[in-house]
Amino acid sequence: MNPIPLLVLLGLSGSFDDPTTSASHPRAGVCVSDAGPEYTQRPRLYVRETQPERLLRIGDAAPALDVAEWTRRGPVKPFQAGTAYVVVFVPSSTGRTDALFESISKLAEHFAERPVRVLAVAGEERNMNLESWRRKVETISDTIRFPLAWDNSVRSRTAYLAAAGELQPTTVFVIDTQGRLAWYGAPGGTTPILESILAGTWNLETTRKEIESQEDLAWLRIETIRAQRAKDIGRMIKAGERLTTGFDDPPSLEFAEALRDDLMRFASDLLAADSAFNVEKEPRLRALLLASAQHAAKIDHNDKPRSLALLARAQAINGDKARALRSARKALELAEAMQPPDRDLIDQLTRDVAEFGTH
């Protein structure tokens, strides 16, 4: 197993060398259309109607870069065995890139005496072409102490960003010493990843499972939202079945907790007063409600009041008042022992116990 925490594996931190600052990073969707990547639209969230096929996965041979011009400190030779690479795709039309480029420069300098090459790739966007880019680079040249390339059309960005389904305006791809894609995500935690790669301890299989599981979970969030908005019961059932059966072997404790939260969100959405679906009238949704609540409570080892409270409601709606009463009583006991106490939850469970205890 990798010693790197899930937060770092998923690129959820804020700078190249500080994996402690967290930022939201929805790993879902791709910046592509039938005509190819729409890079001028980043970072606006744009997702396809369905989850795209994975064309670039952790462990695959890293695609070659197709560069039109090295605007600073190039060229860089094609990926060489024995050297690790960090390829950062950066926006070109963003007003200020000084801090970003300074951060990349510091990473490059940190590994200057070791077999690591750090480089960045920019490309044409709505408000930036190559000629304008050259002028911009000249004004910030002091912050660019690494090789900086200009993409050949959108070929490099297509081979990496579109193939991996990345949306971030700045995305980092780490390539190991054997030329394989080792990690990708938003800036953050790159230094410990490189250290692990150079030490020969980086686990590609674990990393792939972590990233792809998180991406799948993010897509299911999108699917359930779309199903609710469209009042599409078939789509909701399909998403719920995948959510409740598709993650039997969570890759980490952190992912298991994220899965629990999504299972509880799915169940709560079905139970909401403004839900597009009537769970009590639809047996398939009723069964999924129970399955999601059971799975969430199991992840919590059946000893957390909120997931047990949700399980109690699901059991009651499925006609099992005896089990619902036991779950609600246990949840109430746990809630009353919490410090500070959650009065709203205690009040709800008190009502539930009274209701489920009435036969």
Question: What value does the average pLDDT take?
Answer: 86
Shape: elongated
Whole-Å distance between the termini?
51 Å
Unreliable segments of 5+ consecutive residues: 1-14, 19-46
Using only CA atoms, what is the Rg?
24 Å
How are the strands of the biggest sheet laid out side by side?
3-6-5-4-7-8
- Which structural class fits the helix and strand makeup? alpha/beta
Number of strands: 8
CATH class of the largest domain: Alpha Beta
Assigned CATH architecture of the largest domain = 3-Layer(aba) Sandwich
Number of helices: 12
Number of separate structural domains: 2
Describe the fold and architecture:
This protein is α/β, with parallel strands linked by helices and 359 residues long. It has two domains: 6-202, Glutaredoxin; 209-356, Tetratricopeptide repeat domain (Serine Threonine Protein Phosphatase 5, Tetratricopeptide repeat), CATH 1.25.40. Helix content is 47%, strand content 10%. The strands form two sheets. A six-stranded mixed β-sheet has the order 3-6-5-4-7-8. The protein has a two-stranded antiparallel sheet with strand order 1-2. A hairpin with a 2-residue loop joins strand 1 and strand 2. Helix 10 packs antiparallel against helix 11 (321-337), helix 10 runs parallel beside helix 12 (343-356) and helix 11 (321-337) runs antiparallel to helix 12. Mean pLDDT is 86; it is low at 1-14 and 19-46.
